[in-house]
Design a protein that fits this description.
The chain starts with a strand and ends in a 5-residue tail after the last strand. By secondary structure, the chain is of the alpha+beta class. The strands form 3 sheets. A 5-stranded antiparallel beta sheet has the order 3-4-10-6-8. Strand 1 and strand 2 form a beta hairpin. It has helices at residues 9-25, 31-42, 64-69, 76-88, 107-110; strands spanning 2-3, 6-7, 111-117, 128-135, 140-144, 150-154, 158-162, 175-178, 184-188, 193-200. The protein is built from 5 helices and 10 strands; from the N terminus they run ββαααααββββββββ. The chain is 25% helix and 25% strand. It is globular, with a radius of gyration of 16 Å.
Length: 205
């Protein structure tokens, strides 16, 4: 959340932890790292726009603790990022993704998204769109696409798929890069799926 040109310290911490997570796991010269090298320098400039994001929780948000408990103590980087999200949880405007034709009936109440930075985020911006997704066990976030490229930091067991390719399991701490407009899906395992995502929109903040 921003007040004037002051950014909430907990939000800055989440930005820093996500930047470190991508920088430490993405390969040199990879599209994921190149995207991060556009996103995080832009975030050095604090947006002066007033946030229009009222806090709002959904029932599935109660599963965030279970998702965090699946992160081992040896995954310190991922654990710190997940705990930063947990700290911001009461401020977030959690919402359901709608309009997905292939969504199972349980998907509506079994998932939630929230925006940290970007349109209707804690920090309102036009250049970066960053948020978090939480999904109950045993669900699929069905195929969807969007023009901006996207980088995920994976914080729990789960699976990702692009187009009709096989499902892949990045593992806790894994990085997923989605090129612009590619069809993508993700699937939770036996524990809730928790992931942070960021997209480069390329406009001024």
């Amino acid at each position: 959340m921003t007040i004037g040109t002051i950014r909430l310290a907990e939000l800055q911490s989440a930005f820093d932890l996500l930047e470190n997570a991508i920088a430490s796991r993405a390969k040199a010269g990879s599209p994921a790292l190149e995207a991060a090298n556009r996103i995080f320098p832009a975030l050095k400039s604090v947006s002066t726009k007033v946030s229009t994001c009222p806090p709002h929780r959904l029932p599935v948000c109660d599963q965030i603790d279970e998702a965090i408990s699946a992160i081992g103590s040896d995954q310190a980087e991922s654990l710190a990022l997940a705990r930063a999200i947990k700290t911001l949880d009461p401020l977030l405007g959690w919402y359901r993704r709608t309009g997905l034709a292939d969504a199972a009936p349980a998907f509506a109440d079994g998932h939630a998204n929230a925006v940290l930075a970007g349109p209707k985020g804690l920090e309102e911006r036009n250049d970066v769109w960053m948020g978090v997704s939480l999904m109950a066990p045993g669900l699929t976030y069905p195929n969807h696409n969007h023009p901006p490229e996207e980088v995920y930091a994976v914080l729990s067991p789960g699976f990702w798929r692009q187009n009709s390719n096989p499902w892949v399991e990045p593992g806790i701490g894994g990085i997923v890069y989605n090129p612009p407009n590619i069809f993508q899906a993700m699937r939770s395992a036996d524990t809730p799926l928790l992931a942070v995502w960021c997209l480069w929109l390329g406009e001024s903040a």
